[in-house]
Amino acid sequence: MKDKKYLFSSGEFARLNGINKRTLHYYNEIGLFCPEVKGDNGYHYYSCFQTIQLEMILIFRRLGLSIEDIKTYTEHPSDLSFKQIIADQKKGLSVNTNF
Question: Would you say 48 and 5 are in contact if contact means Cβ atoms under 8 Å apart?
């Protein structure tokens, strides 16, 4: 197993990032966010360096992006696709605020 001082169990990682452990399991099941290491004991371990990737996913969720849109972006990240996501969200916000 990799250097253990940089790895956290799914429960520890969830607590450190203020989310539910079940969310991590769900993201893993759908292939959106997977643990760095799967131990021989079946446990999932996340690297402290994965916090940035998780935070990006959580920000996109707060912005209202669907899981599929986030998954598409994380599979093919680029400046252009990020700008498109932001532009689409701005359009959605302006449509929702015009009464």
Answer: no
Please name which of 66, 48, 44, 49 lies closest in space to residue 57, comparing C-alpha atoms. 66
Q: Is the pTM of this model over 0.85?
A: no
Please write the tens of the pLDDT for every residue from 29-59: 999 999 999 999 999 999 999 999 999 999 9
Integer Cα distance of 45 and 13 in angstroms: 8
> In the structure encoding, which two tokens stand for residue 58, read together?
């959580």
Distance CA 31, CA 25 (A): 10
Tens of pLDDT, residue by residue over 15-35, are: 999 999 999 999 999 999 999
With 0-12 / 13-18 / 19 or more C-beta atoms within 10 angstroms meaning exposed / middle / buried, residue 75 is exposed
Rg of the chain over all Cα atoms, to the nearest angstrom: 16
Compute the residue count for the chain.
99
